[in-house]
Amino acid sequence: MFTGIGALFGILGSGINRGISIYENKQQAGIDKERRTDEYEAAKLNASKDSLIASYDHDKSIGANVSVWVANIRALVRPAITAYAFLFCSFIYFTIDIETKKILAIVMFELLNTVVAWWFADRFKK
Length: 126
Fold this sequence. Notes:
mainly alpha
C-alpha cells in the first residue's frame, strides 16, 4: 500500500514539475520574442538613420564642384514646384464651376498637402 502511495506522489510531483517547466518555457519564449522585436525595431531605426545621413552627405557632395548658377538653380527647385502647385490649384479653383469644385477640392487639397509635406518634411523613411 505504501509503495503505491509513493509511486502516486512521485507521478504527481513529476507532473507538477513538468507543468511548471512548460509554463516557464512559454514565459521565456514570450520574453525572447519581445526582445527580438525590440532588436528588429532598433535595427530598422539605425538603418533609416544611416540612410538619412548618407542622403545628406550625397547632397553635400553634389553641390561641392558645381558653379554658383547650378547651385542656385538646384536650390530653387523645391520652392518653384511649391509655388507652381499653389498657383495651379488656385487657378483651377477660381476658374471652374461649383459642381466641379466639389469634385476636385479633395484632389487639389491632397496635391497641396503632398507638395507642402515634401517641402517641409524630412526624407526620413518610416
